[in-house]
Amino acid sequence: MTTTRTLGRNGPSIFPVGLGCMGMSEFYGPADDATSLAVIHHALDIGMRFLDTADIYGVGRNERLVGRALRDRRDDVVLATKFAVVRDEDGTMRGISGRPEYVKQACDASLARLGVDHIDLYYQHRVDPGVAIEETVGAMAELVQAGKVRHLGLSEAGSATLRRACAVHPIAALQTELSLWSRDAEDEILATCAELGVTFVAYSPLGRGFLTGAIRSVDDLSADDYRRNSPRFQGENFDKNLELVEKVEELARQRGITPAQLALAWVLSRGDHVVAIPGTRSAARVDENAAAAHIELSKAELETLDAYFPPGAAAGTRYPEAQLRLLNA
């Protein structure tokens, strides 16, 4: 397994495991900025230089945090952020916008919060059903021409949308959920990305932490943890999914690795154009996740995982109904 992968057809080389920074500012319970800064610096020190944030994480707080971490280390980083999900300052969700004027406004705001003069990878976070993808990507392409953005990406876009986008401007990356318990991307989008020279960026590759085995009860989550609202973390679904995790733990023990490393190695086995961005607020977990890039699963191990985790094995949908409606199939 190669330990570097190229972003898009001609982008920078990146380590196959990056760092998702979302949970450092919202969604996963209380976090400490000083600790988060130290974790980001540790990730950079070991060569994990692909950092992922978005303008909505913490309603801008996460971009400011990442910007502080990069103040003296901008050249060490391949920096990705996103626009399109519109929220008020109090966090209220306002909808999705891919309007050209909003694209430019959102980019300027992200650049200011991050304290940088360019963004390496700028994603449309969700596709706006009310705006043709050609219009949105056309506006994003103007950001490339202006030097504000180096590469373009889409998140949770379907194959047809991706093809239309690529006809306007090269798309370097498509970010979508992929893990042992979220295998929808294998139906079509992984192959489309490979065909078009698009890097597939797997978010939530550890099933929002469930596949690590660290969550044994919903009471392990803080009161404000958004996973409490996730169908897979509720009631009977939780119990059924815990049985799946026990199979991951069993296989990991046999191999002498951690459940997280097994789950990440599986994601990276989906193709040389696949990278993963697990989130963490722990330097030890950064090291654990990075080590997964050096693990190659055998044919027998992959077949066993397929038997344990056929598509649709997880109990419950990956998002509540309202959020599922925002995905571009």
Q: C-alpha Rg, in Å?
A: 19 Å
N-to-C span: 30 Å
How many strands, what sense, and barrel or not for the largest sheet? 8 strands, parallel
- Ranges where pLDDT stays below 50 over 5 or more residues in a row are none
Sum up the overall morphology in one term: globular
> How helix-rich are the residues, as a percent range?
25-40%
List the helices and strands and how they pair.
Blueprint: E1 5-6, E2 13-14, E3 19-20, H1 33-45, E4 50-52, H2 61-69, E5 78-83, E6 85-87, E7 93-96, H3 100-114, E8 119-124, H4 133-145, E9 149-155, H5 159-168, E10 173-177, H6 189-196, E11 199-203, H7 235-255, H8 259-268, E12 274-276, H9 283-291, H10 299-308, H11 321-324
Helix pairs in contact: 1-2, 3-4, 4-5, 5-6, 7-8
Account of the 3D structure:
This protein is an alpha/beta fold and 329 residues long. 37% of the residues lie in helices and 15% in strands. It is built from eleven helices and twelve strands. Strands 3-4-5-8-9-10-11-12 form an eight-stranded parallel beta sheet. A two-stranded antiparallel ribbon has the order 1-2. A two-stranded antiparallel ribbon has the order 6-7. Helix 2 (61-69) links the parallel strand 4 (50-52) and strand 5. The model has no long low-confidence stretch (mean pLDDT 92).
